[in-house]
Design brief:
single chain; 356 residues; alpha/beta; Nucleotidyltransferase, domain 5; six-stranded mixed sheet; 15 helices; 40% helix; globular
Length: 356
């Protein structure tokens, strides 16, 4: 089966052709050039699109106009990504009428979080319907990590920490192939500081700023999603390469920004470790792992209390690889997100069920 996978980010579109489960070509374009991806691989059996938020959906679905309309209503809960996926789905409908279009959801991997990990300590009349909960994100990346660990580790039901380091950052605790805790919550704002997102902030601070500034809800949303994180702390656009360059030059704001960024990721790793009775493997994935591997060495350099260590020389390699020294108590891996592979698997699964 030939599946065209479309993975929209907040500002770019990753497209890939996956044939019988193996990627054979990929490209990165801006979101306004979706037609390029559709034209580049014109002969396909299905198109698969990554949606960050699927609401209560636990698995992939075939898209219809009504389903896309329903997914669009989730935009307030993932405003950087959901509108792009919705727009892309409608573009595929327009340019490829009749082609099967399958949606996969990052939230699906976390759909069965234990109640103690998914529930907020809010009034029960707010949470009784099960909608105001912690959903979790980066699920396709986590699912791929689980699949690869089953191939690479000689350990039954391994306990894994999956650290997705990209423009968005999350840490997930995985046991027996299932998410048991994760750092992102109702939205992709919760957790460590990110490129432009604040990560977790005391709600009382947000209320104080809104009262004293004053700020509207829309202004606060823009500040938390677009003007915070590395961008807000360093006075840059949040591109990690720019921040690291300024840090190397001794810029005090950049030095502080990177220190906060690393500290907050380490803190989430510690929190997620507490949800496991042991750690068999740590997986680092995402664009930062791929393009700034030296930062992974810095990050792991202060995780020895968890038995986590890496060989800086191994961090500088390519492809899926072991980063930890030989004989380390916890095996540390760097690997690609594999989201294109997971998207294609979902498309094949949905179409197989339809044809049975």
């Amino acid at each position: 089966m030939r599946v065209l996978t479309l993975n929209p980010g907040s500002s770019s579109l990753k497209s890939s052709l996956v044939v019988d489960g193996s990627p054979v070509g990929w490209a990165v374009t801006d979101l306004d050039n979706a037609e390029q991806a559709l034209d580049r691989w014109s002969t396909v059996d299905a198109v698969a699109i990554r949606f960050v938020h699927g609401g209560s959906r636990t698995g992939p679905v075939r898209l219809t106009a009504d389903v896309v309309d329903a997914l669009e209503r989730l935009t307030p809960f993932a405003p950087l990504h959901q509108p792009q996926a919705v727009r892309l789905a409608r573009e595929v409908f327009r340019s490829r009428p009749g082609s099967p279009v399958i949606a996969s959801f990052d939230t699906g991997f976390h759909a069965h979080l234990p109640e103690e990990a998914s529930r907020y300590a809010l009034p029960r009349e707010w949470t009784s319907q099960g909608r105001l909960r912690r959903y979790g994100f980066h699920g396709l990346s986590c699912r791929h990590a689980v699949r690869r660990m089953a191939e690479l580790l000689d350990t039954p039901a391994p306990r894994i920490l999956c650290c997705h380091l990209g423009a968005g950052v999350s840490v997930t605790a995985i046991r027996a192939g299932r998410s048991v805790d994760t750092s992102m919550g109702f939205t992709p704002l919760e957790g460590p500081a990110m490129a432009t997102r604040s990560g977790s902030v005391d709600p009382g601070l947000v209320l104080h700023v809104m009262r004293s500034a004053p700020m509207s809800v829309e202004e606060m949303e823009h500040a938390l999603y677009h003007r915070s994180g590395l961008a807000g702390m360093s006075g840059t656009d949040g591109d990690l390469r720019s921040v690291l360059a300024r840090e190397a030059a001794g810029d005090p704001d950049a030095v502080a920004a990177v220190a906060v960024y690393l500290h907050r990721i380490r803190r989430e790793i510690g929190a997620m470790a507490a949800s496991l009775d042991r750690i068999d493997a740590v997986v680092f994935t995402g664009g930062v792992t791929e393009h700034q591997p030296e930062l992974v060495a810095r990050l792991a350099g202060e995780l020895g209390v968890f038995g986590i260590s890496v060989d800086p020389a191994r961090c500088l390699g390519d492809g899926d690889r072991v980063l930890s020294p030989d004989g380390a108590p916890v095996t540390v891996f760097a690997m690609g997100t594999g989201e294109d592979i997971e998207l294609a698997r979902d498309a094949e699964a949905v179409l197989t069920v339809e044809h049975v």
